Amino acid sequence: MKKVKFTFNYDNDNDVWEGYAHGTTWNGWDNVSVDEKEHKRIEEYFGNQPEMDIEKGKDGLYSYANGFTTSIVIVKMEENRWLKEEKIINEIEKIQHDAIQYAIAKVQEKYGMDHGDCSPSLDMEFKEVFTALAKCTYKQLKENEYL
Predict the structure, then answer these.
(1) For the segment 111-133, what is each residue's pLDDT rounded down to a tens digit?
(2) 122 three-class SS
(3) Buried-most residue among 59, 70, 96, 114 (CB within 10 A)?
(4) Residue 4 contacts residue 21 (beta carbons within 8 Å)
(5) Are 47 and 32 in contact (CB under 8 A)?
(6) Exposed, middle or buried, 100 (CB in 10 Å: 0-12/13-18/19+)?
């Protein structure tokens, strides 16, 4: 498992915790585990709540998977602040969107289409492709250590 930093969605202070990514999600939330020291810190922070009563796994870690609203965060180096991965992907998508829309309009124009109307299902498919491209760009930035 890869070492990561993460937040709990319901933590209004946006405290950052250290753990290990499972590489999976539950209902869109990142599944993570923590060592005993971090688990105790989390328990102290949130108080003695029943949902924090987690058994140590065979790997010696405490799993906050399948039921906890955790999000892995990263540091954006030039601003030296924490941003959620999703926020960065959304920023990338906004930057790419106008250029892609322009290119699509040029193709439509070439084939005689004078408007960009499409069905709701096709519109959703475009949105999914825009998001996939933004995620791919994010991965490229991360792979080349710009994030």
Answers:
(1) 999 877 888 888 888 888 999 99
(2) helix
(3) 70
(4) yes
(5) no
(6) middle
